[in-house]
Amino acid sequence: MRIDPDPGGSELQLLGQYLDYERETVLLKSDGLSGEQFVQKLQPSDLTLGGLLYHLALVEEYWMEVRFLGRPERDPWVGVDWDTDPNWEFRTAADFSTLAWTFSDPGRQMELDARRIGEFIVLAGSSAGKKVEKKLPGAGATWNQLFQIGMGPIVLSGKAELKFCSIGTEGPGELKMGKFTATRENEEKILLGGKEIAAVHLRVSLSGLLSIFWHGDYWYRQSDGRFLRFRGKNRPGGPEAVLELVGENAHDGN
C-alpha cells in the first residue's frame, strides 16, 4: 500500500518515505503479471520490466548494503564481470536465465542447491547420502532449469532456435550440465479448456546426437509466450506425460 511522504518530516524521514513510496509503486505495477510479461520488450527499446526490476534490486543492494553498511556483495551480483558485461542484470532478466535453483527428492536422498557465480554454476548438496560439490561450466550459456517458463523469450522473439544448458537430476546426465536445443516447429491452434488458442509449438531436445535419447514438445501462447502444454517424457525411457495450464490470474493492468 502506497503512503504519500509527509512534507513536514525530517530529511532522513523523507528519504525513507520516498524510497518506500517508489518501492510500493514498482510492486503495484508488477503485481499479477506473468513471467512472460516480465520479459516482453516494448519496441523500439530492448528494456523489459524484469530487467528494470533486476536493475533496481542491484542498485538498492549496492548502495544500502555494500556502500553504506560495508557488507560484502551477495548472490547473484558477486563475481559478475561488469567491465565486459555492463548490462548483465538487464540481459539475464530478459532471457529468463536461471540464477539460483534448489531441488529436493527425499526418496533418493537428494538435496541440491545451484547458483551462478561468475563464469560457473556452483552445485552443492547431497545425493544418495553422499556430498555433492561441483563447479559446472556456465560461461556464455543460458542456464534454464524450468523449461515451462524459460522458453517465453524465443516465442516472443520469433527466433527459430535457442540453445541453453540445464543440470540433470536423473539418468546418465545426473548432476551434469547438459546441452539442450529448443527448436521452433510451427504455429498452430490448440484446444485448451474448451477454447481455441493460437500457440507456438517448440521441440526441446538434448543437443547433437544425444537428441535421440530425449525430446519434449511444448506449446506457448503466441501473444505473450505463456506456457500452455507439455507432452513428452520427464526423463529418458520414462512414461509419456502431459502437463497443461489449467488457470491463470487475471490482471486489470492498473
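the 2nd protein, sequnce then structure:
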Amino acid sequence: MGNEPNAERSADDVEVRAHPCFARRAIRYLKVYKLRFCFVLTAKLSDHIAIAEKLRLFTLLLTRQVKLGRGVRLGKAVSMSRFARYSFGRGTRIGDRCVLEVGSSTVAELFVGEDSWISHDCHIQANTTMTIGSNVLIGEFSSIRDTSHSFDDLNMNIREQQDRFGKITIEDNVWIGRGVAIIANGRALTIQSGAIIAANAVVTKAVEKNGIYGGVPARLIGRRA
C-alpha cells in the first residue's frame, strides 16, 4: 500500500517525459519537409473557406508551392490553380471569390508584396512571372492578365491561334480602381509606383510613375502633385 503513490508518480513522470519526445520527433519531421507552422498559424484563413479549399491550400504549403508571410488573409472561396507557385507578403489580403489562375510552367509564378489589398471578385491570370508590389490597392471585379489571343490570321478561328504572353509588373503604392482590366497583349507591361488607374479603365500599355490614367484604352489624364 505504501508504494502505490510512488508508482502513480512514476507513471505520471513517464507520461510527462513522453510529450517532449513526441514534440521533438514532430519538429524533426516538419524540418525534413521544410514546413513552418507559421504558414498556417499566422495566415488567419477565414472560417468560411470550404474544408476542401483548406486542404488544397495545406497541400500546396506542404509542397512549397505557396509562401505566406505573417498575417496573410484569404477570403471565402478563393480559387488557386493546382501545381502553381504563389508568394504572398506579410499582411496581404485577398478578397472573397478571387480567382488566382497561375500556369503550371516553370516560369509561371505570382508574387504579391507586403500589405497589399486585392478586393473581392478579382481575376488574375499569370502564365509568366507576374509581380504585384507592396501597398497596392486593387478594386473589386478587376482583371489582370498576362495572356491574350492572337487574331491576325483571318483564315483561322481566333481560338485556334497562338496565345500572346507578356510579363506584368505592378510596382509599389499603386491604386487600381474598380473593374479595371490590365492586359499585357504580347509585350511587357509595367505600372510604375504611385500610379492611379481610374475605375473601368482598360490598360494595355506602360503607366508612368505617379500618373493618373483612365478611359478605354487608358490614357494619361493627370498627374499627382
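The helical segments are 4-32, 38-41, 51-62. The two ends are 88 Å apart (CA to CA).
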